[in-house]
Amino acid sequence: MTRILILNPNTTTAVTDRLATVARAVAARGTEILAISATRGVPYIATRAEAAIGGAVVLEMLAERIGTFDAAIVAAFGDPGLGGARELMDVPVIGLAEAAMLSACMLGRRFTIVSFARALGPWYRECVEAHGLRDRLASIRLLDDTFASIADVAAEKADLLVALANRAVEEDEADVVVLAGAPLAGLAASVKSRIAVPVIEGIAAAVKQAELLVALDVRKAIAGTYRRPEPKSSSGLVPSLEALLAGSPVLFNGSRP
Hints:
Layout lengths: L1 E7 L4 H14 L4 E7 L10 H16 L7 E4 L7 H7 L4 E3 H10 L5 E5 L5 H10 L6 E6 L10 H4 L1 H15 L3 E4 L7 H5 L7 E3 H15 L22 H7 L12
Parallel strand pairs: 1-2, 1-3, 3-4, 5-6, 5-7, 7-8
């Protein structure tokens, strides 16, 4: 059995439930999906500051569940904490944004990112650049309206997001559309027939890539960018993260590997 841990680094459990529903629908037989929400932070991440908070929470969530998963997904589109998680973890850690964008690159020359809030723009653009995909980006198209509920924004804004996506295809020459943001999980399936190019469902892409990386049985890096940092003492962190940073991780059941 492959165990995939989905980490929602914000506090909206309805979004976590949406992610889990889509993930379980696409997961292979024998894949177990565990989805958890942050217990502290913001309802949804939309800015650099909120992403920094979410990244720290991601590391805590991973540290507290070591030994319970074979791969993890950081389920916020800007991939907060992804680099640090890859340094510390022995198993693959997949970013929602990276998985969606790399999948888009396999389907077309350039992709557009479409989402529901103007505030997301600077963070998303920096995420694209951090993953080295700036030259594959056709555009970032964002709605400028308010919304009633983050849990229901996908249904509330579906028609506007479809119109925005088709404008990106026509005006920006986008070959693929990425519907960005965990709150939009599940939307791609219901609107893809209304958009003229392929539409990527981020959490579905992340789950399938997680399954692939587990099947490849790759080793933890001992050199290069994502090698484990040298052990270091810390203070004031959750005990499981302190132990991980010190090079002595504690498994979820309280034992040591």
